[in-house]
Amino acid sequence: MSTSTQHSFSSVISVNPYNSTYFSGVSSFINETASPSYAKKQFVLSFLNTNSFINAKIEISKNIPQEDLADAIFNKVYDELALDQAVEYQIQFIETFNTLDMENRYFNVFIVDPLTISQTYQSVIERVKYIDIIIPSPLLLKSLYTKELIQSAGVHCFVYIQENDAFVTIYHDKEFVYTKSIKFSLEQMHERFCELYGERVEYKEFVNFISTQSLKETQSNYKSFFIKLYKELFANVNDILTYLKRAFELEKIEHIYIGMQIPSVTKLDEMIEVELNIKASDFDFDYGFQSNDGYIEQMHALMHVYATLTPNERYENNFSTFHRPPKFVKRESGKLIMAIAASFAIAFAYPITYWVLSYAQELQLNLLKQEYTDVHNIKATREATIKNKEADKAQALALLTKEKDEYTDKKNTLIKIHDVKVNYPMKAKLLSTFTKDLNEYDVRLEALSYNEKESVKILTLQLVADDDKRITKLVEHLTKIHQGVFKFSLYEIAYKEEPKKYFSALKVELL
Fold first, then answer.
1. How far is 61 from 64, CA to CA, in rounded Å?
2. Which structural domain range is residue 471 located in?
3. Closest alpha carbon to 50 in 173, 164, 189
4. What are phi and psi of 462, to 5 degrees?
5. Most buried of 8, 31, 312, 398, CB within 10 angstroms?
6. Three-state DSSP class for 232?
């Protein structure tokens, strides 16, 4: 497995080779740059989309010595995956420790065709000359746990949609487990949307709708087709999770993080949580970066976080073939010049050695005396400053605690006011919505009830009619005109001899 040598750099530049975007970072400031260029003190890193590499899990006997491990993995990868022997694939791997096996060790391997690397980064290298790290995109997610942006353990699923790729990645107890490219990139979703809609829609218009329109509020003709498109995405993710729970013996998926390369007004996390009944959040984390740009793509932000980590805090799977030139002392010309300089130094060193040593000792003594005086004065000043700052800190903490308590009280009051102001009128509005339809189909309302459970809002209407067909026609009508807004459930229509009426309970779930 390759490792990177740690250097000191003045800036970091992240590269997305698939849409030719570059973000330059200095300290905690990150901004997009349209014209990146070569700089010696610049650290450059990039990533590979999941459709650019092969990921597999293999087992190796524990009897294999550590020095022979890499060769054993390479040979087994070629055999088990039937790789072309004529191609010298780049292979990187990480060991997994979540399987109890006394005889074998398990590794996640990542295989890349060198031709893919050269073609993907051809235009990038013309600008920046070298790339220090190229890492598979799912391994960047390790940074979220290292920086404690995600503090909980368990089984987490990450779904991220880019312009020309989309992936599902699983982490278990903060370690990588599995990744898969899915056919729901923005470009593929656009094609599928046009199929569902029945007409060709411009890609820019498609992306603009995602970035500016909320499916909850829009009245666009696109609404129902986007809902179908997203449900197909969620169904595909659900199929993958079902397979993974069985294949990796996972009890359950505890959290899903879902997001897009472009900003989305519609809350995909809320939709997938309802569809799959798994707690979900937006794939958007507060990395602590400052930027003049309105939106930083998650892949760029993750790369800048990755650049700040030490090798033992991140996955070191580097596929870069575009290395920096060696240091001067390691070049052949540099070695020759150093040898010549050493020869001259040796020739003239002996006559002046004693004079230099005597002068140096005297000079060093004077410098140390002056340095001691300066350091002592600084020490006294800083000790006094620290005492003052500690007193100020104690006062500030006391004030902060008081403000937090007041904030909590006010927040709770506003929540109660909002609940009374919003929820109660909402119930009346729902009843008003259906009154006209009840009258039209001559169905009477005997009673109604409303409840909320785990953010699911359900209104139950107790219906009475002289004919059971009136009830079924009413439900058919409601389902048609309120598609995508309400979900109607009718399980039974009961007939009572007295008073010779048909009774039924209609459940209305707000989507």
1. 6
2. 441-510
3. 164
4. -90, 110
5. 31
6. helix
DSSP labels for 251-263? S---EEEEEESS-
Asked, for residue 433, whether it belongs to a domain, the answer is: no
pLDDT in tens, 95-126: 988 777 788 999 999 999 999 999 999 999 99
pTM: 0.64
Residue partners of 232: CB distance under 8 A and separation at least 6: 184, 192
Whether residue 299 is found in the same domain as residue 262: no
Q: Beta partners for 106?
A: 59, 96
Which residues, 6 or more positions from 352, have their beta carbon under 8 angstroms from its beta carbon? none
Q: What is the pLDDT of residues 377-402, one digit of tens each?
A: 888 888 888 988 888 888 899 899 88
Residue 211 has pLDDT above 90, yes or no: yes
Q: Are 98 and 112 in contact (CB under 8 A)?
A: no
Pull the structure tokens for residue 380. Answer: 């006294």
Alpha helices in 98-218 (DSSP H): 114-120, 122-128, 142-146, 186-197, 203-212
Lowest mean pLDDT of 235-239, 262-266, 323-327, 352-356, name the range: 352-356
Question: Do residues 210 and 177 lie in contact, with contact meaning Cβ atoms separated by under 8 Å?
Answer: no
Q: Give the domain-ending residue among 284, 317, 349.
A: 284
Question: Does residue 302 sit in the same domain as residue 365?
Answer: no
Helices 223-247 + 268-276 axis angle, to 10: 60
CATH code assigned at 187: 3.30.420.40
Identify the helix (H) or strand (E) that includes residue 31: strand 29-32
What does the block give as tokens for 353? 């050695």
CA distance 272 to 60: 38
Give the chain's domain count.
Answer: 4
The amino acid sitting at 146 is T
Q: Which CATH number goes with the domain that contains 96?
A: 3.30.420
Pairing state between β 42-48 and 11-16: parallel
- For the chain, how big is the Rg over CA atoms in Å? 32
196 and 235 share one domain: yes
Q: Are residues 83 and 181 in the same domain?
A: no
Q: Residue 460 belongs to a domain with what CATH number?
A: 3.30.70.2830
Provide the token pair at 434. 């259906």
**Does the residue 142 lie in any domain?**
no
Read off the pLDDT of each residue in 23-41 and give the average, rounded to a whole number: 86
Domain annotation covers residue 434: no
Domain boundary among 384, 417, 450: 417
Q: Compute the average pLDDT of residues 12-26.
A: 92
**Residue 177 main-chain phi, psi, to 5 deg:** -120, -45
Asked whether residue 271 falls in the same domain as residue 380, the answer is no
User: C-alpha distances in angstroms, 463 versus 274, 445, 470?
Assistant: 27, 5, 10
Cα–Cα distances in Å, from 81 out to 71, 77, 326, 346? Answer: 15, 6, 36, 59
**Residue 210 — very low, low, confident or very high, per pLDDT cuts 50/70/90?**
very high
In the numeric block, which tokens belong to residue 324? 């920096």
Residue type for 202, please?
Answer: E
Handedness of CA 395, 396, 402, 406 (dihedral sign): positive
Cα-Cα end-to-end distance for the chain: 49
